[in-house]
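Lab notes, practical 5.
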Amino acid sequence: MSLEFPENMRELEDKFAIKKARDPKVTKQQVMRQTIEETFQAYLDYAEDGHYDTGKLVGNELQVLNLNNKVVKKVKPLTDSFENDFETNADRLLGYLEDEATRAARM
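Output from the prediction step:
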């Protein structure tokens, strides 16, 4: 994709380096969690042909909230955490997030 939506650890490291230069307090985990949340949101917006529902990474799950801020779907990581999923197999995680966003859009 790009630095906006990293598809692997190398691209994530590049994004982290840029953010770290702007804000020395930012952590790699924060950048990774933000990337996962934003990528899921992009898939969700695409599946819904616009921004109707919102995906939020809360703890160790992605929650899909409708226009009334009610949780309509919860997405669990493939392993113990989304961060671990991204580090070990980003392609698999991104495919999973896209599939789950499509399922959420059909609800």
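Observations recorded by the TA: The mean pLDDT is 94. The radius of gyration is 14 Å.
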